[in-house]
Write a structure and sequence with these properties.
Chain lengths: 262, 287
């Protein structure tokens, strides 16, 4: 894979990068909920313009994000096709006994946009927030759950470790793919069984290496006295500043009005 | 006719991204049939990127790579190259995946579509070449072997395909001295007895000085010197090159020369250095 890895953190110093991770997570949740509750065109438009604004402010090249959207094109296409033929309503045209309805087409288009918004907003979150900050944000947001004896710290450690190793594992998969290809593994063979067997040649060593690494990581953490308890202190404390209050206030207000009132 | 011909090759990782990196920049190189070519360079100098072009894993961004008379910019030819060029990756022991050593070593031959008899012969032959007893090791699972043994099994997996050209990326990294000598002897034997063309990447100049017929030096994606070990030592001041350590005996010779002693700095082998120092000592004692 040449190019940027999906949702990989891009170091930067823009306003979006500087925001508190909690703000970004909450806004992300607001966007996701709004688009799940209400998918009228103006809510989609509002979300798209918010995402566009974030992309511009974060100074991430838009072309790169759009390119990553291309990977989802089949999902979009299938969604659109199924929505447009399976929704009942006023028929537009038909092929044999399959009717394409007006309601279906409009639902299909809005579903594509909703999927796109879900994808973009989570991608932007991970692209502009370092895994460490993301984890401390999650931990801080879920802190009240500690009263219910839910291991919040361990949970956030889990997430940050997982996020941290995504690029590593992708890189490793790449090397293994190449190594097996040079031993004749056929990843683009017309036969599905051959393809699956070739994939196994990559997945088995990849899994073995991941387990090994998990073991090493645990040993390294324990050797530095990590116990996973609550007596951990983060080096950089999260600060919920003026910018965050402003951003959060603005977004919540606009969304409340749009989603519930209009 | 050269087996490997590289003309003005350029390759860029992540073009257009903030992480854009020009890994190779105008590299021109050729390897003759039956030759032992050493490629030396610091980390990130483009060695691994270069050799991945040799068996069609990467497609040149600029310039040409011609392997066994085939231009690798054609995808179809690139996909067939693995049959001719065996590539041993860095830490190849990490790619073992089958349940037994035999099955893993025979993975390549099986993909070549050979018959079961030929597969058995080649697999056992390859295991013997890397100094392993097929009878005692073939049915063991690779996981229960030590790191050094697993490395040998992985190399056998590439040898079993009997490639015309064998490309190795730091085959001795992380091995103990015994394992290192074993692998290096094996590679030299392959060149001398089986007439296999060898390309070996290393950042140990010492290994390559004793083994290679010719050495190419990469620095920041550019080819800065190429030729026989002596020529390369003459062309390039390795003492000033970061990331590559001169063999200790050459460091000594250069240090002596730096102090005004009359020594021949145009040598490459350890035996020559010994003679030089012996001569120098006799000269001093004679006075």
């Amino acid at each position: 894979m040449k190019g940027l890895k999906l949702g990989q953190f891009v170091r930067g110093n823009s306003i979006i990068h500087q925001l508190d991770p909690r703000t970004k997570i909450i806004v992300c949740l607001v966007v996701i909920f709004s688009i799940l509750i209400n998918y009228k065109w103006y809510v989609i438009l509002l979300n798209m313009s918010l995402i566009a604004a974030v992309i511009i402010l974060s100074r991430i090249e838009p072309a790169k994000i759009l390119r990553s959207l291309r990977k989802l094109r089949y999902l979009f296409l299938l969604t659109f096709i199924f929505q447009s033929i399976l929704t009942s309503g006023e028929p537009l045209f038909h092929v044999g006994s399959v009717y394409v309805t007006r309601e279906g087409v409009s639902l299909g288009v809005s579903t594509i946009f909703r999927l796109m918004i879900l994808y973009l907003c989570s991608t932007l979150l991970t692209m502009t927030t370092s895994p460490l900050k993301l984890a401390s944000g999650i931990e801080s947001l879920f802190a009240p759950l500690r009263r219910l004896r839910i291991p919040v710290h361990q949970f956030s450690m889990l997430i940050s470790a997982a996020l941290r190793f995504i690029p590593t594992i992708i890189e490793e998969a790449q090397i293994l793919t190449r190594a097996q290809r040079s031993r004749g593994a056929q990843f683009n063979s017309p036969s599905v069984i051959v393809r699956i067997k070739s994939m196994a040649a990559v997945l088995i060593p990849l899994l073995a290496a991941s387990l090994q690494r998990a073991d090493d990581l645990a040993a390294a953490m324990e050797s530095r006295c990590y116990t996973g308890g609550s007596n951990q202190i983060r080096i950089s404390k999260l600060r919920f500043g003026k910018k965050d209050k402003l951003a959060l206030g603005l977004v919540s207000l606009v969304f409340l009005v749009f989603v519930f009132c209009i | 006719m050269p087996v490997i011909e590289v003309k003005d090759l350029s390759y860029t990782y992540c073009p257009g991204a903030p992480y854009e990196k020009k890994a190779l920049d105008g590299v021109t190189l050729s390897v003759k049939r039956g030759e032992f070519m050493g490629i030396v360079g610091a980390n990130g100098s483009g060695k691994s990127t270069l050799i991945q072009h040799f068996n069609g894993l990467l497609c040149p961004d600029g310039g040409k790579v011609i392997i066994c008379g085939q231009d690798t910019s054609v995808k179809q030819r690139r996909d067939e190259l693995w049959k001719k060029v065996g590539l041993v990756f860095q830490y190849p022991e990490q790619q073992l995946f089958e349940a037994t050593v035999f099955e893993d070593v025979s993975y390549g031959p099986r993909n070549l579509g050979l018959g079961p008899r030929e597969i058995r012969i080649r697999t056992e032959d390859a295991l013997k070449k890397v100094g392993l007893e097929p009878e005692s090791i073939a049915d063991l699972p690779p996981i229960c072997l030590s790191g050094g043994l697993r490395r040998r099994v992985a190399i056998a997996g590439v040898l079993a395909m009997q490639p015309e050209v064998l490309v190795l990326d730091e085959p001795t990294a992380g091995l103990d001295p015994l394992g290192r000598d074993m692998i290096l002897n094996l590679i030299k034997k392959l060149q001398q007895e089986d007439r296999t063309t060898i390309v070996m990447v290393s950042h140990s100049l010492r290994e390559l000085l004793t083994l290679a017929d010719r050495i190419a030096v990469l620095e920041n994606g550019k080819l800065v010197a190429t030729g026989s070990p002596k020529e390369v030592l003459h062309q390039k001041d390795f003492l000033a090159l970061p990331g590559i350590i001169m063999p200790d005996y050459l460091q000594l010779i250069h240090a002596l020369a730096g102090r005004g002693k009359k020594v021949n700095t145009g040598i490459s082998a350890m035996a020559e250095a010994e003679l030089e120092i012996d001569r120098l000592l006799k000269e001093i004692c004679g006075k």
